[in-house]
Specification:
- By secondary structure, the protein is of the alpha+beta class.
- The protein has two domains: 40 residues; 44 residues, HU Protein, Chain A (Irregular), CATH 4.10.520.
- The chain has three helices and five strands, in the order ααβββββα.
- A hairpin with a 3-residue loop joins strand 1 and strand 2.
- The model has no long low-confidence stretch (mean pLDDT 95).
């Protein structure tokens, strides 16, 4: 599903215009980015949690040449689904 399709779905469920739904979605995504950039964790009970994890520097291999290469340390965003979301996706609800 593409962003425009998702905006149409949200607009229909929330009984709002597509323009308002797009503003709301953009605001929510921006707020999630701000929380993660600050190093905080966002928990949405029943849906899941967003947080960041530190990935240490490590050695890897260039897939093309097979040469060893250093992979830099990074901070990555992580999403962990909540029980209610897992159950819904598995068809248990």
């Amino acid at each position: 599903m593409k962003k425009n399709d998702f905006i149409s779905l949200v607009a229909g469920k929330a009984d709002m215009t597509k323009k308002d739904a797009e503003k709301a979605l953009d605001a929510v995504l921006s707020a999630v980015e701000d929380v993660l950039a600050a190093g905080d964790k966002l928990q949405l009970v029943g849906f899941g949690s967003f947080e960041t994890k530190s990935r240490p520097e490590r050695m890897g291999r260039n897939p093309k040449s097979g040469e060893p290469m250093k992979i830099e340390a990074a901070v990555i965003p992580v999403f962990k689904p909540g029980k209610q979301l897992r159950d819904r996706v598995n068809g248990d609800i």
